[in-house]
Every structure is written in C-alpha cells, then in structure tokens.
Amino acid sequence: MEKNRKTWGSWARVVSVAGGLALVGAAIVPAAAYAHDLTYSYDTTVALGGSISLVIESSSTAQTVTVNPSSVEIVTGTSDTLTIRGAATNVRLKNSKSRNGCVKDGSGYNYLTINSSDDVTITPDTSTCTSNSPGGGGGGGGYVAPPATSCSVTAPLAGASVAAGGAQPITWTSSGSGIADVLLSYSIDSGKTYSLAYPTGRSNSGSFTWVVPNLPTTTAFVKAECRDASGTDLATGTSGPFTITSTGTIPATPATPATPATPATSTTPATPATSATPATPAQPVAKALHAYLKNLVVGSTGDDVTALQQFLVAKHLLTIPKGIA
C-alpha cells in the first residue's frame, strides 16, 4: 500500500514494507507495518490490536514509524518532532523511556511528544492514570518527569546590527541534563547554510565572544546546538535575523612584498672601431699623348722628363711604383 503525504508543499508517497502498510481511511493498522521519512499533513490514527488506537497529530515528522499489534516504535531525526496521543481519553501512553504517559492536552487526551534524535516504543494500555503516574510503570504516584532539554540563543538579538570585524558576544541558555558541549555556527543566507563560529564544541558556559566575519548581510542568524558526550544534538536554538555591516575595522591583509629587481648586467665596453686605412693618393692621370717628339739626352730633367713619363704611362708602357712622386 502507499499513502500520499504532503512534504514542504509537494505531494510525496510513503511506501510500506515488511508486511504492508494497510490504510483504513486515515488510519494505519498493524501488520508489522513500516513507513519512513514521514510528514503528517493531517491527524492519522494508528489502530493497534484489540480496541486501542493512537493518533499521530498533524504537522508531526519522523524518520520511521513501525506499527506492531500491541506497540508502535517511533524514530525521529535531528529536525523531527512527533506528537502522539490516545484516540480515547482513557488510553495511557506507556513507553520504553519511562516518560510520563498521563500528560493531558487541552481536550483531555494523554499525549507524548517525541523530539529530535530519539527512539521510543509506545505500548499503550487503559490503566487508570493517577496524578503524575509514569507511562512506563505500574501507575504509582510520586513520579516527576525529567525536564525536557532545551537550548536557546539570547544574543545577538533579532534586528540587531553588528559590525564586521568586531567582537560580538554569542549567549545562550540551556536546560535539562546530559549536555556536554555546545556547537556554535552562523548563517548569512537566512539559515539555509551554516558555518562554524568555532571549530569544535564549546563548554556549556552560556557565552562566547565571536569575531564577526567581513560578510555583510541583512539575514544573519546564529545557531547553538546543545549536544551530549557522543556529539548527538539534544536541542537546538537559533537567533532571529540580524544585520552584519561592513563599517567595522577589518585588519588589512599585508601586501605581498615586491620581488627585488634583478640587477642589470654590466654593459661590455664597445670594441673601438678600427681606424680606417688612409686611402692611397690617386696617381696623376697622364695626359693622353699620341707621340713624344722631344729629344732627350742623358741627364735630362724637368718638364720634358715628366712629359715623357706621362706619355709612357698613358701607353701602358710604364708603371710608376707607389710612393714615387
């Protein structure tokens, strides 16, 4: 069998296993029935063997509900809360945790609320309840139920404005037994996600000085989770929304030192230019003569000899060695 249920605005199905989850109207009847990840959008009757029935009240949530002929076992997760009552005013909620099964609601029914991370088996009966009689015993008087564990954030207050970088006290109150430490966290997105305000659980001192992160927002929350020695969350409290402003003094991140410049490599002196070799003076060009008509004798000098030299050079018959004028 399947049962439609509403979960956060969308319809889902709870599927039974281990013998089937038989439904009669809005009732679950036993057959070693088992259902998981439950959200009850209306009051649901759990019909046990005989004439005893229980009612799981609307808006209850649980991880598993196992229905047997004479008992029902309820397991809740960290965010679950389930309220169950007798279908008749004379039904006592005897249970495995020896909690008071004779606490009446405004309509006169005995009821039991099972909070986060719990596992309770209820074996109801119709024994007469006496004042403060326990749900798990024989109905003797004088029983006082242990106080429920609670954990509440008292600061920052809803609507407060805290400065980024400032020291902001987170304070909380708690009650009940078994609280070993308190895990503190904060959110900047209306509680959708949380980051740790301190990396591990703090002692249950009621106060912690928090250095506000530089994450400006108008939808900040702080959460305190009161836990037992095994780290199981016994109760959780959250603040109302508050604002983180960026007006606080935020320690500047030291600038990374500049890398020293690499010393310039010394310039190799330029090689002196080789001095140019002086040009060889041009030789006078001999005047082109067709014939040399002078008569020279041994020992002749002067212009006539010079003219003869020019004639012979022009005819390529004489080459004057370099350096001879």
Ordered list of secondary-structure elements with their pairings:
Elements: E1 2-7, E2 10-15, E3 22-24, E4 27-29, E5 33-39, E6 44-47, E7 53-56, E8 61-67, E9 72-76, E10 82-86, E11 111-114, E12 118-122, E13 150-155, E14 161-163, E15 167-175, E16 181-187, E17 195-196, E18 207-211, E19 217-227, E20 233-238, E21 242-245, H1 303-314
Parallel strand pairs: 4-6, 14-21
Antiparallel strand pairs: 1-2, 3-4, 5-8, 6-7, 7-10, 8-9, 9-12, 10-11, 13-15, 15-18, 16-17, 16-19, 19-20, 19-21
Secondary-structure element string:
EEEEEEEEEEEEEEEEEEEEEH
Tell me the number of helical segments per DSSP (H or I, 4 or more residues long): 1
Give the DSSP E fraction (strand runs of 2 or more residues): 25-35%
Mean pLDDT level: 76
Any idea what the radius of gyration is? 53 Å
Explain how this protein is built.
The chain is mainly beta and 325 residues long. It is built from one helix and 21 strands. The strands form five sheets. The protein has a six-stranded mixed β-sheet, with no helix packed on it. Strands 14, 16, 17, 19, 20 and 21 form a six-stranded mixed β-sheet that branches. Strand 16 (181-187) and strand 17 form a beta hairpin. The longest helix is centred in the last third of the chain and has 12 residues, at 303-314. The termini are far apart. 22% of the residues are buried.
